[in-house]
Amino acid sequence: MTTASPATGNDQPWLAGTIARWYTENARDLPWRRPGATAWHVLVSEFMLQQTPVVRVLPVYGQWVERWPTPGDLARESPGEAVRAWGRLGYPRRALRLHAAAVSCVNDHDGQVPSSEADLLRLPGVGSYTAAAVAAFAFAQRTAVLDTNVRRVLARLLDAQRYERPGAPTRAERERAFSLLPVEPRAAAATSAALMELGAVVCTSRAPDCPACPVSGRCRWRADGYPPWHGPLRRAQSYAGTDRQCRGRLLAVLRASHGPVPRRTLEEAWPEAAQRERALDGLVFDGLVEVVVDEPASVSAPADAPAAASDAQSATHFRLPVSPRPGVD
Ligand code: SF4
Questions:
Q1: pLDDT-based confidence at 233, cuts 50/70/90?
Q2: Torsional sign, CA 193, 196, 200, 201
Q3: If you placed Cys at 123, which of 11, 101, 129, 135 could pair as Cys (CB 3.0 to 4.6 Å)?
């Protein structure tokens, strides 16, 4: 078989072997990939890497696993401490869900991260991608790990499409990705990691570095002259002035305080009243913030019953949650 004709799904041994060899020589040295990394480390990294670049995850990940080296260590803390330690990674509900996942590991799996995808899927905050990633990277299982990077690489390589199709992976996509993996589980897991890395550092969304790509000679999109994408375009998310920025600003104030924060302090953090109240209601509803009525540290809203907007309006103080909320998903 030459390396000049475009790839097909039948090229499985060649594709997997070439990409895996490239990975062996070029993989970034990331702490959750090192020999001493535990399944908990991998789970923490996967939560943090959802929607956040590696460079921003690294410092928070390091502090997190040093402070909470096992699920039990985190489960003993309040959810608010998890939110505080999440720092500025964004999408802080992930911190609550990771805390809830740690509690589930303790309650249902003897303090260990479960190894089967079915059990992983039952952990709060774990979807099909994260379950497959943990099964592959922590437990060396043969399973299709389909994140955006892998889907994009396969769409270019095998379908001559610039981007993966919108929405969740289809069953056909999963089956094809699975069929590309070597039979031996450890080699399959290495291939999954290699495909992800190729998409993350070479076959990037906007500027693929084809001269550096180990499979460029077999890429259908390249062979076809890089045909343009006719599907829907992803809109760049704005941040400045959005409710998301407002939530982040309010949460930063609450994270910096180890006691209840008076309403007026939050008013100073985000002067626009309607947006601030909307953001505050959202934070309370999501369980990221508790309402403390009257004096600081007096009465907090029940953790499992988010305060209504009117309660939030009349409350005088707010704080990070001190007790888990049942059913965090
Ligand atoms: S040749 Fe270019 S477009 Fe094709 S898989 Fe490699 S980096 Fe991506």
A1: confident
A2: positive
A3: 101
Give me the residue label for tokens 């906007």: 206
In tens, the pLDDT along 193-208 reads: 999 999 999 999 999 9
Ligand 1 close to Cβ of residue 22 (< 6 A):
no
Q: Does residue 222's CB lie within 6 angstroms of at least one atom of ligand 1?
A: yes
Atom of ligand 1 nearest to the CA of 212: 7
Catalytic, 272? Answer no
Q: Domain residue spans in the chain?
A: 9-223, 243-319
Mean pLDDT of 13-27: 94
Ligand 1 centroid to residue 194 C-alpha, Å: 14
Q: Cα–Cα distance between 102 and 75 in angstroms, integer? A: 5
Query: Nearest 5 degrees, angle CA 98-CA 103-CA 104?
Result: 95
User: What superfamily would CATH give domain 9-223?
Assistant: Hypothetical protein; domain 2 (1.10.340.30)
Question: Is the minimum distance from the CB of 221 to ligand 1 under 6 angstroms?
Answer: yes
